[in-house]
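Q: Sequence in, structure out?
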Amino acid sequence: MAKIINGYKLKWGDRRDGRRIKAAGLQTIMGHLYPNRTDCEVYLHDTIDITELMEFVKEKNAQHPDLKTTFFHCVIAAVAKMVRERPLMNRFVQGRRTYERFDISVAFVAKREFSDTSEEALLFFVPKDEDTVDDVSRMVVDKVTKVRKAGDNKGGIDDLLDKFAALPRPILMAAIKLVRILDFWGKNPKALTDGDPNYSTVFLSNLGSIKCPAVYHHLNNYGTNSMMITIGTMRDENVLMPDGTTRRRTLVDIGATLDERIGDGFYFARSLKLMHYICANPRLLDRPIGEPSGFDYK
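A: Exactly. Output:
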């Protein structure tokens, strides 16, 4: 009996984490000419005006002091909203075939403690269409709190990685080779893929939280992640506005690395414009992620 995921009945060629897509000829051929994701990286740098977004955060925290909303929570919600409206951003290429995920998934890294020797924890969650930025804030705060309270009792994908790393080198090499083969065919067990950022729609890194600028982070050939975004530090600058006046605005730089096999430059550029629009109209984040933004793509 065929398995049903989110109302979709799996067909021959589909994976547990995505349905097979008949990609355009160029993308299909590129999947064979450049089978490795790192061969198809494109880099995007941009500066986003977040003045209205930061005012939105201040207002929310003043109105609801019991639920602290941060800039990063808003970025997560905005990216999820963008991906829902721009479905090609939720595609991936693996095993020389193109797939579209059944869910939007966001991953990021959190330090267990703010010290040089503290280890990092991999956090992964799946926003739903009905979620708003408030739901995202609750999910992030809950996950980060649990990780930091757990201390060395990691659990999940972090604990599994530690067990793999403890294997003797020849056994580890054989195990990794088997995992890569299963990864190619989309047959890796859920215990290896659930919670792994390499299997997320987008991997976010808030470098601004540690006072670092945005960088270009590589993609990985392992897994299905096709989009890596880093966020730099916020700064205030005088900006020349469209009406010719100069205003003090809050800006942030982002660096994105994308797999060019999932879309073209025109599609990526429009997706970026949507991110600008959401940041300029942050009250959209109080609406469900699955609700259209109303952005005019002309």
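The mean pLDDT is 89.
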